[in-house]
Design goal:
Layout (H helix, E strand, L loop, with lengths): L7 E5 L3 H12 L3 E6 L5 H9 L3 E4 L4 H5 L3 E4 L8 H8 L4 E2 L1 H6 L5 E6 L4 H14 L4 E5 L5 H7 L4 E5 L2 H5 L8 E4 L14 H8 L11 E5 L3 H9 L5 E5 L8 E5 L2 E5 L6 E4 L8 H16 L4 H10 L8 E6 L2 E5 L6 H10 L4 E5 L12 H7 E7 L4 H7 L5 E5 L2 H11 L5 E4 L12 H13 L2
Parallel strand pairs: 1-2, 1-4, 2-3, 4-5, 6-8, 6-9, 7-8, 9-10, 10-11, 16-20, 17-18, 17-20, 18-19
Antiparallel strand pairs: 12-13, 13-14, 15-16
Helix pairs in contact: 1-7, 6-11, 6-12, 16-17
Length: 450
Amino acid sequence: MSSAAKKLLVVLGAGESGTGAAVLARQQGYDVFVSDLGSIGDKYKQELDSLGIAYEEGTHTEERILAAAEVVKSPGIPSKAPMIKKLVEKAVPVISEIEFAARYTDAKMICITGSNGKSTTTMLTYHILKNAGVNVGLAGNIGKSFAKQVATESFGYYVLEISSFMLDDMYRFKADIAVLLNITPDHLDRYEYNMENYADSKFRILQNQTSDDVFIYCADDPETIAGMQRHPVKATAYPFSITNTLTSGAWLENNDLVINLNNHNSFNMSVNDLALQGKHNIYNSMASGITAKVLELRNQTIRESMSNFTGIEHRLEFVARISGIDFINDSKATNVNSTWYALESVSPSVILILGGVDKGNDYSMLKELVKTKVRAIVCLGKDTKRIHDAFEEDVDMIVNTFSAKEATQIAFHMAKKGDTVLLSPACASFDLFRNYEDRGEQFKQAVKEL
């Protein structure tokens, strides 16, 4: 307690993670000041008020912030932001909420990162542990603030979804079990448009690990394998693969998912029994399954959990079947790679709803799948030129729309029995919606009204 006594901790950003960090800091005896350049939600204001924590919104008061002994910043604030640069010049430590909160818990950390599949794998892993009776919390890029849970709960384990932005501000933190699902181009605007910089950021998930810890990775992912040459692994490593049979880790044999760690009590289950279907979800299930086996959970429990998991909202979420047409909400697909996974996992033929704010997307990786599976594309967004340029030769029809309702109605009219209408935009949502959740909700509402 005394080490924090009245040291000034400044929290930049007052969303879920920032408010949680402020709550924990106050509990640990810090003098706390919260500053948000945007506006602060009423729910978070009430929480800060109830604890008497000082805050400001719509501005950053420089002298107060620069007086900090330490700063916890929201993952959404880039390191290039002027205030962050000033703090770094002044040698004030700038850390993430995860780094800060981890100091105050002895819980074991299961940390999941990767460009795609991390929310699903995090939720599935949490689901397996919870069903096995493990005292486990869920946090990071998902659910409730990690810091707030450290302040108010007493979990023995945490399953944390960790983004590269969080990892960039983590230094002493250690994952007891680190999972790296894959590395594909995303957020390159934050990494000088350099893939190696982005990959190195993901590999921070390994920092501070020792031979007592575990690293779970995809042996089929070329960027991960290349990264492992640059970042030596000290932990016990378990690969997973769907193309090769391995001696330890997880792999496919005939149609069975097999997990074997050091040749005792191996696990196997038919991929047809997995709740999550599609190639990418076999990877997600393998990563979660290895984690469960590392913790020595019972095979029966793992099998049950993997077969009854219901998936997550806005990620390949089945909405309805109307007149023999399936509607799937994959609004969380904000990059091309996510849309590739979605197309790969649904059966032909597809009416694809694409578009939004394009982060410099390279659509070429979708071309083959679009040719073989997609009948028509419905563009949803203000700027659709690049989608037209990329696919006009591959599909019969491309139509522009400017609302979720319009896109849904047009897709329904184009579809015939046996088709799938897939909202998987490959773009951010900020041109027409508040966020990807808002986009997904509006799509689901529009489907209900058909």
